[in-house]
Write a structure and sequence with these properties.
single chain, 531 residues, mainly beta, 16-stranded antiparallel beta barrel, 31 strands
C-alpha cells in the first residue's frame, strides 16, 4: 500500500504491486543523491604559476619545482637585393657571375624559439639555454639555361641543419652552464660580445671571429673580481673553423674551401684551444682572445704509402673594445683587430666564407678581354707532394659607430678589412707550376698555370677585402623593428694581366679575362618581431 498525498484532495488508498514499490524507492534515493551533489564540495588546491624575479623579467617558476623558465624568440622576414643566398654578398658561384644567373633578390622568413631555464643549487645557478629555428628561403635555380633550368629548392645547402627543400630546421646555441662551466653549442669564446655584428645586420663581415649560431665547446670561466674574467675553452673546429688545407698537386673542389688545389683534410684530430681575458667597466669593455688551431692533412696521393705532411698548428689573436655613451648618451663604438697564422676562420668568419673563395666577375676596359674577374682564395694552409704545410697569414679589423636619434630611430656606420698573405713557397707553388689550381665542373681550369697569365701580367694570390655599410632601424612599437642595411664589398687583388677561364655552369665562355679588382653591393630589408 502506498499513501499518495494530493494538495486540496482527500487521501486515497491505492493498491500497488511490489514492482511499483521498488521503483518508487529507487526514484526517492536518486533524488536524495542529486540533492547531495548540489552541496558544496572542497576542491583540490590549484597551484598557480608564480613569477620568478631572481633573473629579470619574463621568468616564471615551473609548477612544483624551484626551476625558473623563460620562453622567447623572434619572427624575422628578410628581403635581399642582389643576393643569390643569404646576406653575405655575391662574390662567388652564380652570384659572382654577375649575369642572368645572378638573382635580383632572395627572400627569407625565420621563426626562432628560445627556452631559458635557471635553478639555484649548491654550485650556484644551473642554466640551460636552447634556440630552435625554422627558416624558409626562396632559393634559386639550377641548369645551364638551355631548356633544363628548374627551381632548386635546396640550392642554399643544409648547413648541417637538415634542410628539407628550401626549409631548414636548425639548432642555434644549446648549452648547459653551472659553476663557471659552459658545455654544449655556444658562441665561440674567441668572439667579441657583438660576435660579427659590431653595428650591422649584414652577415658577411670579415675582421673577426664568428659562430653566431654556436659551436660545440667545453669552457670554464673564472671571475677574477673587479669586472675581470678569464676563460679557457676547447671547441670543435670542424663545422665552422676550417678554411681548408689545400693540396696544390690536385685539382680543387671550389666552394668554401677555395679554388687553389684540392681539399685534403684527414679526420678530426684535436679541438681548437681558446683563452680570453675580459674587463668590463662602466665606460665599456676590453677583451683579448687567443686561439690554437690544428691543421691535420690526409695523404699526398690518397693512400698511406704516398705519405702525408705533418700537422701544423695555426693560431689567432684578437683585441676588442667597446666604448659606451660616446659621443652622446646611448651611443656606442665597437672595434676589434685580429691576426691569424694558419687559422683563417678567426678573421674571415664562417658566414663570410665566400670572401675566402672569391670568383667575382665584372666589366673590363681591356680590348683583349671578354670580362674582368677577381679570383682569390684564403685557406688555412697549402702544400705540395713531399712538402710541409705552409700557413696562410691574415690581418683584419672591423668596427661600428652606433647612434640613437631618438626612442624610435637608430643608425650604424660600420666597416671591415681583411688582408690575405701567402709565403714565397706557396706563391711559387701556385704560380710557378702548370696545372695547379682550378675548381670542379670546369669553373676555372686552369687558373694560375705557368702560362695562364698573359699580356705581361703578374700572378700573386695575395688580396684584400674592404667592406663598408650603413643601416637604419625604425622601432614603431616595442619589440618590432624594421631596418634597411646597404653593404659595399671590394676585392682588391695583386693579380694582373689576362687569364684563360671557362665555365658553362656560370654561362662564361672560354676566353681571356682581365684579372682586376671587383666590387659588390647588397641591400637588406628586414622586419623583425621579438617576443
Amino acid at each position: 500500500m502506498l499513501l499518495t498525498f494530493v494538495a486540496g484532495a482527500s487521501v486515497k488508498v491505492q493498491k500497488r504491486t511490489a514492482g511499483s514499490v521498488v521503483l518508487a524507492a529507487i526514484a526517492f534515493l536518486l533524488g536524495e543523491v542529486a540533492q547531495a551533489a548540489d552541496l558544496p564540495v572542497k576542491a583540490k588546491a590549484v597551484e598557480y604559476v608564480k613569477i620568478c624575479s631572481l633573473y629579470g623579467a619574463g621568468f616564471y617558476y615551473i609548477p612544483g619545482t624551484d626551476t625558473c623558465i623563460k620562453l622567447g624568440g623572434y619572427l624575422r622576414v628578410d628581403v635581399l637585393a642582389n643576393a643569390n643566398a643569404v646576406n653575405t654578398g655575391n662574390v662567388f658561384g652564380l652570384g659572382g657571375a654577375q649575369n642572368r644567373y645572378t638573382n635580383g633578390f632572395t627572400w627569407r622568413s625565420r621563426e626562432d624559439f628560445s627556452i631559458d631555464t635557471r635553478t639555484q643549487t649548491e654550485y650556484g645557478v644551473v642554466r640551460t639555454l636552447s634556440f630552435v629555428t625554422f627558416t624558409w628561403t626562396s632559393g634559386g635555380y639550377f641548369g645551364n639555361g638551355n631548356g633544363s633550368t628548374s627551381y632548386d629548392a635546396a640550392s642554399l645547402g643544409t648547413s648541417g641543419n637538415g634542410a628539407v627543400g628550401g626549409g631548414q630546421l636548425g639548432t642555434f646555441p644549446t648549452f648547459i652552464q653551472f659553476a663557471g662551466f659552459t658545455l654544449g653549442k655556444a658562441i665561440s669564446q674567441f668572439s667579441m660580445p657583438w660576435v660579427n655584428y659590431p653595428g650591422n645586420t649584414f652577415d658577411g663581415l670579415v675582421g673577426g671571429g664568428g659562430s653566431v649560431t654556436g659551436v660545440n665547446q667545453f669552457t670554464y670561466s673564472a671571475n677574477l673580481g673587479g669586472g675581470n674574467t678569464l676563460t679557457l675553452s676547447a671547441q670543435d673546429p670542424v663545422a665552422y673553423y676550417q678554411a681548408g688545407v689545400q693540396n696544390l698537386g690536385a685539382l680543387g673542389g671550389g666552394g668554401a674551401l677555395g679554388i687553389f688545389g684540392g681539399s685534403n683534410y684527414g679526420g678530426s684530430a684535436s679541438p681548437d684551444f681558446i683563452a680570453t681575458f675580459r674587463a668590463d667597466r662602466p665606460w665599456g669593455m676590453f677583451k683579448l682572445s687567443a686561439a690554437a688551431h690544428d691543421n691535420h692533412a690526409a695523404y699526398f696521393g690518397g693512400t698511406e704509402p704516398t705519405g702525408h705532411p705533418k700537422d701544423l698548428w695555426g693560431y689567432a689573436v684578437a683585441a676588442g673594445l667597446t666604448i659606451k655613451n660616446v659621443p652622446a648618451e646611448g651611443d656606442s663604438i665597437n672595434v676589434q683587430g685580429v691576426y691569424t697564422n694558419g687559422a683563417t676562420r678567426y678573421n674571415i668568419q664562417d658566414l663570410a666564407g665566400q670572401y675566402g673563395a672569391v670568383g667575382l666577375f665584372g666589366k673590363s676596359s681591356n680590348p683583349l678581354a671578354y670580362q674582368g674577374v677577381a679570383i682569390n682564395s684564403a685557406p688555412d694552409t697549402v702544400f705540395v707532394t713531399g712538402s710541409d704545410q705552409h700557413a696562410i697569414k691574415t690581418w683584419g679589423a672591423q668596427g661600428a659607430y652606433n647612434h640613437n636619434w631618438n626612442a624610435n630611430w637608430n643608425s650604424s656606420f660600420y666597416g671591415a678589412w681583411a688582408s690575405v698573405r701567402y709565403d714565397n713557397f706557396s706563391k711559387v707553388a701556385i704560380c710557378g707550376t702548370a696545372g695547379n689550381g682550378g675548381a670542379s665542373g670546369g669553373t676555372f681550369l686552369p687558373v694560375f698555370s705557368l702560362t695562364g697569365v698573359a699580356g705581361g701580367g703578374t700572378c700573386n694570390p695575395d688580396y684584400q677585402i674592404v667592406q663598408a655599410g650603413f643601416v637604419t632601424r625604425w622601432t614603431p612599437v616595442k619589440g618590432v623593428a624594421i631596418s634597411a642595411d646597404i653593404t659595399w664589398s671590394h676585392i682588391q687583388q695583386k693579380n694582373s694581366g689576362l687569364v684563360v677561364a671557362a665555365s658553362g655552369a656560370l654561362g662564361k665562355p672560354a676566353a681571356f679575362y682581365e684579372l682586376k679588382n671587383q666590387d659588390n653591393v647588397l641591400l637588406l630589408i628586414r622586419a623583425q618581431r621579438n617576443w
